[in-house]
Amino acid sequence: MRKVVVTGMGAVTPLGNDVKTFWENIKAGVCGIGPITKFDTADYKVKVAGEVRDFNPRDYMDKLDVLHSDIYTQFAMAAACQAVEDSGFDMSSEAERCGVCIGTGIGGIATFMDEHKKLLERGPRKVSPYFIPMMIANMAPGMIAIRFGCKGPAIPAVTACASGSNAIGEAMRTIRHGYADVMITGGSEATVNALAAAGFSSMQALSFSEDPLEASLPFDARRKGFVMGEGAAALILEEYEHAKKRGAHIYAELSGYGSTCDAYHMTAPHPEAEGGAAAIAQAWAETGLDTDRVYYNAHGTGTPMNDAIETLAVKKALGEERARKIHISSTKSMTGHMFGAAGAAEAIVSVLAMQEGIIPPTIGLSCPDPECDLDYTPLKAQKAEIDAAISASLGFGGHNAVLAFKKV
Q1: Contacts of residue 243, Cβ cutoff 8 Å, sequence gap at least 6
Q2: FRET pair for 49, CA 20 to 30 Å: which of 8, 300, 301, 336?
Q3: What are the residue ranges in the chain where pLDDT is below 50?
Q4: Does the active-site annotation cover 337?
Q5: End-to-end CA distance of the chain
Q6: pLDDT in tens, 153-210
Q7: What is the distance between the alpha carbons of residues 289 and 32, in angstroms, rounded to a whole number?
């Protein structure tokens, strides 16, 4: 199979609206979670979220495109523009060999809410003619393809919290099997709003802590739920020889991808971690490495069931001995759960952690859960030589998507 490498990256996150700021804050253990400002929380138990701040879509899109797009598309466009610029490649120069795959869990939920309100209050004639194209989940990849002239495949991945990782993995396979040479890929989500918060609250899935530093506590015995986050991240994937020929800067090789389904429950992971372990094992086997110098960026949401079962999945997939030697952390402790964007943002973290030899921390982890007994890099970042990085995403519906990277 053809080798696939990462040649560009972009990010819009609760920890900064570019990769450099995002990564510096990740290394420093900065908490990007704060009081919710996007809706009135007076009637809600949930009070904090990982919001994107100081974002201006006009930095990346013209006025009409902003008016005719949902904020999830705007986040995606911003991350894609950064990644394309970082790659230094003109997609339109080889249009038929360039494609787009962007993941999202929900798509244009803000547009759905706005237009539904118009329908109820002012009648059907006041619903925007752009309602459907603004709302649908494929519009982010569609608009990105239009912007950069990509005439290869342009598709979404919609697998809840695994969407970003599935998008990247499927983009990798598209290049591996010869259907494209370059792919803009990643994930985007904009669900910090009143309706999503109400739904997740009703599920008893969220942390109701009002202290941002005590809200997202992956692998900690005090954890009680996840924190909503939002944003987007994008990577440029490129066939290795294509990248080498044009003298591209190569961050890493995307060397493995595992994709499975628990086929068990709508929201709960399989209690024996079967699907998660299988996806990790698939991604790890494709790297072709035999090393304990590994960084594993955990799904690590901070829900009681997820963190314990993910710990079991790592042990089953890598073996107990190796599982206890590798470095693990959950950067959701700093960003909250970015849903469909999480896997893409965490893929960037994984690549940079491997490149710089820095293991990001799991902030807030001061009371370890005995069921979560691996090295989760509590409180502060650590230096370590890393040969490979694994990034895991586990979504509602039992979707498991795992990416593996190694040095080129």
Answers
A1: 5, 7, 250
A2: 8
A3: none
A4: yes
A5: 16
A6: 999 999 999 999 999 999 999 999 999 999 999 999 999 999 999 999 999 999 999 9
A7: 34
Could you give the CA distance from residue 55 to residue 73 in angstroms, rounded to a whole number? Answer: 13
- List of domains in the chain: 4-245 (3.40.47.10), 258-406 (3.40.47.10)
Can you tell me the distance from the alpha carbon of 128 to that of 119, in angstroms, rounded to the nearest whole number? Answer: 10
The predicted model scores a pTM of 0.97
Give the DSSP letter string of 323-387.
Answer: HTTSEEE-THHHH-B-GGGHHHHHHHHHHHHHHHTEE--BTT--SB-TT--S---BSS-EE---S
Of the candidates 45, 81, 377, 98, the one whose C-alpha atom is nearest the C-alpha of residue 237 is: 98
Q: Is 327 a catalytic residue?
A: no
What's the full length of the chain, in residues?
A: 408
The number of CA neighbours under 13 Å toward the Cβ of 61 is 25
Residue pLDDT, tens place only, 249-265: 999 999 999 999 999 99
Find, among 158, 180, 153, 184, the residue nearest to 76 by Cα. Answer: 184
Does residue 399 have an active-site annotation? no
Cα–Cα distance list, 365 to 4, 125, 212, 216, 334 (Å): 35, 52, 13, 9, 11
Query: Pick the catalytic residue: 242, 270, 299, 327?
Result: 299
Dist. CA 179–CA 168, nearest whole Å? 15
Q: Which of 242, 327, 337, 399 is catalytic?
A: 337
What pLDDT score does 1 carry? 83
